[in-house]
Amino acid sequence: MRLTLRVWRQRNADAPGAMSTYDVDGISADMSFLEMLDTLNEALILRDEDPVAFDHDCREGICGACSLVINGDAHGPERTTTCQLHMRSFRDGDTIDVEPWRAAAFPVVKDLVVDRSAFDRVIQSGGYISAPTGSAPEAHATPVPKADADSAFEHAECIGCGACVAACPNGSAMLFTSAKINHLNVLPQGSPERETRVLDMVAQMDAEGFGGCTLTGECATACPKGIPLPSIAAMNREWLRARRKVKG
What we know:
Blueprint: E1 3-9, E2 18-24, H1 33-46, E3 69-70, E4 73-74, E5 95-99, E6 108-110, E7 113-114, H2 117-124, H3 146-156, H4 163-167, H5 174-185, H6 194-207, H7 218-222, H8 230-247
Parallel strand pairs: 1-5
Antiparallel strand pairs: 1-2, 3-4, 3-5, 6-7
């Protein structure tokens, strides 16, 4: 395959950025999108040019590090992570636009790399349990209704990639935050911090500058792990319940 890539290049957070055009040839349909970018970077290095910076780690769809907007879609045309997107999703001769996540809370560090530490601070504000557990408990020591266990597992699948924020026209982090809150709040182990968790995490999310949610649904459509849109409604109910309880 021969492709034309239009890639966002930005030297650092303070420098202006712009799209640069590159031609790549010899691309196999079986390559992942990141392997295709590796091929581009090898050619740039051989020409003594600065390679394109982009985030990656496991390349197995697990870690959430890969974060690219491809032809206007977070992670590209398939509902998967960028590292699991293969070039068979494109055609020979295609022009492909490659950009970083676009959100005020995710400032560009260089090229396609953005700073997603805002997610870390949201987690630090309440995405944990404080109950000492000692050694690993026996699996059936604390009975959990199957519906609650299924819900917790569904929300625990969130890998924190940020596609929900990148896809949202408002740059909202409601789907991410709701996944982390609902994962713990439905389990007995998460009960002690149930109210403070939702209040603190929502407050931190707002403090980080994420936009408000207008339920356009783009976040759930872009999520590679299928976190459902009703997760946001569940979090809102938790928030209202916690507010009423705190106010007495």
